[in-house]
Amino acid sequence: MNKQRFSMNYELRTPNYYDVVVIGAGHAGCEAANVSAKLGAKTLLLTSSLDSIGLLACSASFGGPGRGQLLREIDALGGLMPQIADKSAIHYRHSGKDSAVWAPFVISDRLHYHCLLKSCLEHINTLDIKQDTVISIKHLKMGWEIKTAAQQRFLTKTIVVGAGTFLKGRSRQGNKTQKAGRNSEISAEKLADNLRDLGFELGTFSTGTPPTVAIDKDALDSLEAQQYSRNGRRCSFKNDGSKIEQVKTHKTHTSSKTLQYLKDQIKTNLQVGLGPRHCPSLLDKVTKFSEKKKHSVFLQPESLLQKEWLLNGLSMDFDEKTQQKIVNSVRGLKKAQIVKLGYSVSYRFLKSRQLRSTLASKLYNDLFFAGQVTGTNGYEEAAATGLVAGINAALKAKGKNEFIFERQHSFIGVLVDDISSRKLTEPYRILLSRSQSYIHLRSDNADIRLLPAARRLKLISKHRIEEIESKKKQIAKASNIKANKKLAPDVYREVAFIKKYGSYLKNASLTRQKEETLLIPKDIDYLRAGLSKEAIEKLKRFKPLTIGEALNLDIPERSVKALALYLARKKESRR
Ligand SMILES: Cc1cc2nc3c(=O)[nH]c(=O)nc-3n(C[C@H](O)[C@H](O)[C@H](O)COP(=O)(O)OP(=O)(O)OC[C@H]3O[C@@H](n4cnc5c(N)ncnc54)[C@H](O)[C@@H]3O)c2cc1C
Hints:
By secondary structure, the protein is α+β, with helices and mostly antiparallel strands. Among the domains are: 212-343, Elongation Factor Tu (Ef-tu), domain 3 (Beta Barrel), CATH 2.40.30.260; 517-575, DNA polymerase, domain 1 (Orthogonal Bundle). The protein is 37% helix and 20% strand. The chain has helices at residues 2-13, 27-38, 67-76, 81-87, 110-122, 189-197, 256-266, 282-288, 320-328, 379-397, 411-421, 446-449, 451-457, 462-479, 489-516, 533-542, 547-551, 557-574; strands spanning 17-23, 43-47, 61-63, 89-95, 103-108, 127-131, 134-140, 143-148, 153-161, 170-173, 176-182, 185-186, 202-209, 212-214, 224-226, 249-253, 296-301, 308-312, 337-340, 343-350, 367-369. Strands 1, 2, 6, 7, 8, 9 and 21 form a seven-stranded mixed sheet that branches. A six-stranded antiparallel sheet has the order 15-16-17-18-14-19, covered by helices on one side. The longest helix is centred in the C-terminal third of the chain and has 28 residues, at 489-516. The protein starts with a helix and ends with a helix. Residues 1-6 have low confidence and may be disordered. The structure holds flavin-adenine dinucleotide. Flavin-adenine dinucleotide is lined by residues 23-29, 46-49, 52, 57-59, 133-134, 162-166, 182, 185, 188, 191, 207-209, 345, 371-372, 377-379, 382.
């Protein structure tokens, strides 16, 4: 009772008092702020620059296997990213034909994406947005005090930290290193020190981006064109797609000259192997796949308004001269001039196992983390963790029970379970193989799977709930008759899927329970089990004794499943 009175007085006396303050308007922060405000929490989004709200650091592409499923799930929970990716889309493509694994894939206009997202946030009533840099957060009896570089002071019940690659960010080009979280945006030095003083253990990861060149569209005609798909599937269930012009992208490849330049660099460059495995630098690729004579380069337009094209696949952080030489050695780019150099960034993140599955920290249950600071890498991963942290920060501030996303029902659940319970040895990306039950977690059924969560949290409208209920009924009815082509496309695909995989789905959970108890022999030859290089490396390092233990490591679940199958077959053949 006393506690409650104290809290209310405190709130009335202090105009700068919030339920939730989100630090950083990256992809994590924007989703966190949106959902927190939607849940009725008085929310403040504090970010160093309003001009970089929801900035796409590199390729403006969304989706593909795993990440496309995440997009559909974010959409099912009323998130912003999928709708805005659709509205700013300039190139749709198909990704995965089978209904079990297909996912949306889209390239957006970077400038348009940023403007739409900023505008969307500005129109939310219970959300304030301010440009300022947080320099310290202090734990009080009843919440947190936040101080900023412009000497503002805020009080809040809960915080979501979404500082991205800015915590002690160091960007690098050749021998030049500067204190920057992205390009030349200033890093967050004091906040990183502050988090360490609060008792958090920080690690260092790094990532990078390729250069961009200025080219007229016509000059690209000599390169292989990648056509956009007119009926490409959307990121959002409800959006009818982009209304803006759709454009081709182009594909080319490196030459023997490129490889020679890179070999010269390998002798002096120390950055090999530091970047994310699923988004390697050019130097990493040449080192790890030394047998390959050429590497693909994809040219993507940055915006319909500009002549700037991103050279996806050429991620590098060499000095200006070397980058220019490498670009001109790529087939078809002999005369291309770099307008923005590639660079790499190293940054601090929260080391594994310091978070709960609500994304609250174990040290302070009213301090939440989301996005790149949790050890993830990628726009969709950031948005998904932002959503989870935003929901739970708002619920906590309102004195309500937490909400946990379960692994078996969503890739969001897989993601938060992995980053809260597993030891991450490299930046984490979502992949289909992260879930043993990925076949249950389809793009087409994300709205149905997450309906209980969306309904309980009141994240979607009544009308939308009715639409999903009606879709469920149509699927149940149509499953009993021959698949009917007149059904809506996503309903049709679900019906076809159930016909094809129905009996497999029934047996899957029983098999899993048996698999977890399988022992892994000490002298096992992982190569014989046909596992990937990544999985073998990690299994040898962590030496799990059972399949159950292997499932708790940062190894794609599909690889562990393949190992379980191999062991089960061996056991069978010994009988
Ligand atoms: C060079 C580079 C290339 C990348 N390429 C890709 C790619 O091709 N595809 C992909 O999916 N992902 C890519 N990523 C990763 C992707 O950008 C991140 O995973 C994603 O942006 C993380 O979102 P976030 O919200 O956690 O942080 P960010 O997007 O980094 O945003 C953090 C925000 O917090 C603000 N901030 C930081 N500290 C403070 C503070 N103290 N006070 C106030 N505001 C603060 C920053 O100004 C920034 O706006 C790349 C990242 C980098 C750096």
